Known about the structure:
Layout: H1 4-35, E1 46-51, H2 56-70, E2 75-79, H3 84-96, E3 102-106, H4 114-122, H5 132-137, H6 152-160, E4 173-175, H7 183-194, E5 203-209, H8 215-232, E6 240-245, H9 254-271, E7 275-281, H10 288-295, E8 302-303, H11 313-333
Helix pairs in contact: 2-11, 3-6, 7-8
Amino acid sequence: MFTFRYFFRPLLFGATLSLLCAAINAQQHNHHSNNQPQSSTAQPFGILLLAHGGKQNWNEGVHKIAATVNQTIPTEVAFGMASRRALQEGVDRLLARQVKQIVAVPLFVSSHSSVITATQYLLRQRPDAPEALKIYAKMDHSHGSHGAGHDAGAHSQAASADPTTPVNSPVPIRMVGALDSHPLVADILLARAASISQSPAREVVILVAHGPNQDEENRKWLADMKTLADLMKPRGSYKRIEYLTVRDDAPEPIRSQAQAELREMVKRATDEGAHALIVPLLISFGGIEEGIKKRLEGLEYAICRQGLLPDERLAEWALLAARQSQRASEKAQR
């Protein structure tokens, strides 16, 4: 005997299954949207994160920072020392994401170097090309990843262009300063010192940076390092905080003088009954830290196990720098 109960049972089951599938599809779509915050519409601005690049762990640290920033603002990475090819490819990837403006954010320790001035020229931030650009143009920048998924034709075009000519971009590009003396850098350095500290009152923290070749630029590096040390002092209970640059690439006798100064700082701490804590002011470890250890052979000290990376505060810094630049640009246009 036919009854409505047996007639509607399969219909009810089918409707329930359809609703369940719809809910699952909606959940998957929302998850995908969270991973891809950019929409198909034009974005107000994007970030081109500039970094030296190096070993795999070095590059991975930069990519993690970029991924964090990308959750808020479209972000692409350009590795290299004033590599026109990497810069153009990064710009092209941001253009493909429909950004209206680009803010270049250099994840470098200091703004005071020929790498930065050469990059400024390539990004059309200054009219004259520094002499050092000719040297950087001949370098092999393949140690950095240029990103994935970009157009092969654009890649070939960027590779064949004159490496000493500025990049092409139909949208405005601005470039902010490097880390320099930002308070967030002081926060990270304090954390690195704390990671090897045992008795702060009997410890001397020594900030050690790579440094430039030119004396004038070196004075600017040291001025920024003094600011960082001054920011750190009230928040730590160390005997004192000193700083210097080792100037690895400088000619003699500059390099040897820097080594002697570093050794003297460590010896002085030991003679005072204190312990020297070496805190490298480096984006990431990739070889310079080994040179520091070699310079200090035979002396008593402790050294941090990592540079500024990995640390999510660098993503915070990149966002702050880009947003401040964007606000300043919008204000100037009013």
